[in-house]
Amino acid sequence: MLEASAASGFRPLLQSLIDEVPGVLGVAFCDEEGEAVDLCGAENVDEYDLKVMAASWSLSMDLLRRSVEEKGAGSTALVSVVCGRYTYVVAPVGSTYFLAVWAESDVSLGKGLSAARRLVSILRAEV
């Protein structure tokens, strides 16, 4: 369960993605080192599991983003990974932050990607 004391001003924005997209288990806003600036999870999601997911995917996204830029392929806007049990969406927010989304594998990917893109735009304006 997520503790209320961990909340910041970003919590309502993160919660809006969970509310908008059925099947989203958790959302985290992380810095470039994978540390959660803030996170929000569904009722049955353990805070530790959400932090580990967010840190792992944020660090992976940072490596991917750097590689893509070094190769001159442009910037990485968003990455989604669909696994047997879960779906993950990770997107850079500016050059030093990331949004990580953890969802059930049967989540509506189109709706999830659209909501994640909107949230990234909002977060970019905030940081």
What does this structure look like?
The protein has 127 residues and is of the alpha+beta class. The chain is built from 3 helices and 5 strands; from the N terminus they run αββαβββα. The chain has one domain (4-126): Dynein light chain 2a, cytoplasmic (Beta-Lactamase, 2-Layer Sandwich). Strands 2-1-5-4-3 form a 5-stranded antiparallel beta sheet, sandwiched between helices. Helix 1 runs antiparallel to helix 3. It is globular and about 40 Å long. Mean pLDDT is 89; it is low at 1-5.
Mind sketching the topology for me?
Blueprint: H1 11-20, E1 24-31, E2 36-41, H2 47-70, E3 79-82, E4 86-93, E5 97-104, H3 109-126
Antiparallel strand pairs: 1-2, 1-5, 3-4, 4-5
Helix pairs in contact: 1-3
Summarize the structure.
The protein has 127 residues and is an alpha+beta fold.
What are the key terms here?
single chain; 127 residues; alpha+beta; Beta-Lactamase; 5-stranded antiparallel sheet; 3 helices; 5 strands; 41% helix; disordered N terminus
